[in-house]
Automatic annotation (TrEMBL):
SUPFAM superfamilies registered for this protein in UniProt: EF-hand
GO terms, molecular function: calcium ion binding
Domain EF-hand residues, every copy: 5-40, 100-135
InterPro entries: EF-hand-dom_pair, EF_Hand_1_Ca_BS, EF_hand_dom
Protein name: Calexcitin-2-like
Species for this entry: Papilio xuthus
Key words, A-Z: Calcium
Gene: LOC106126506
Pfam families membership: EF-hand_5, EF-hand_7
């Protein structure tokens, strides 16, 4: 059973990804969301990638396919809010389904590491989160809490923080700030 706190986090992220606001996440929503659309385009520009390059397209397709496999329980090509919450509850209990979580995490890390140095620093984090609607002030404050005062976050650290956000029931977990905002309102 998902706690009220965790449901609030999950539904916040669901709303971020449901770009057209129709109550489901579809491939087109996923393509338009910050970590997949704007950040992907920005990262591609920064790294001189173009559509068709494996790094540009392959990761997105792998993550979307995994989301459908794990989250789209009725196979209708979209993930409803209830399927989203159920998926995260299942992933937290089933190690076999955590492959999806790992793929998703690595993809978002890669897209937020805008300069491609293998770390997310405050500039990377703030730029990525401004594109998803966070204010610069909120994104910077969130990075400070997320990084616990460090200047950058490695992939290993990001993975731990990622699990905090999606799996943890602890309202004080630093991973709760991975979305670049101080709250889930």
């Amino acid at each position: 059973m998902v706690s009220d706190f965790r449901r609030k986090k999950l539904m916040y992220m669901f709303k971020v990804l449901d770009k057209d606001g129709n109550g489901t996440i579809e491939k087109k929503d996923f393509e338009m969301s910050c970590c997949f659309g704007a950040c992907r385009a920005h990262a591609a520009k920064q790294r001189e990638l173009k559509k068709g390059d494996a790094t540009y397209d392959e990761c997105f397709d792998i993550v979307w396919d995994a989301l459908q496999k794990v989250g789209d329980s009725n196979s209708d090509g979209q993930v409803s809010a209830e399927e989203w919450v159920t998926m995260w509850d299942t992933v937290s209990k089933n190690a076999a389904d955590q492959d999806w979580l790992d793929k998703y995490c690595k993809f978002v890390f890669k897209m937020q590491d805008l300069n491609g140095d293998g770390f997310i620093d405050s500039d990377d984090f703030v730029a990525a989160n401004i594109k998803s609607g966070a204010s610069k002030k909120d994104a910077f404050a969130a990075f400070q809490k997320l990084s616990q005062g460090k200047s950058k976050i490695s992939l290993t650290e990001f993975q731990e923080l990622w699990y905090d956000f999606f799996i943890s029931e602890d309202p004080n977990a630093p991973g709760n700030f991975i979305i670049g905002r101080p709250s889930f309102e």
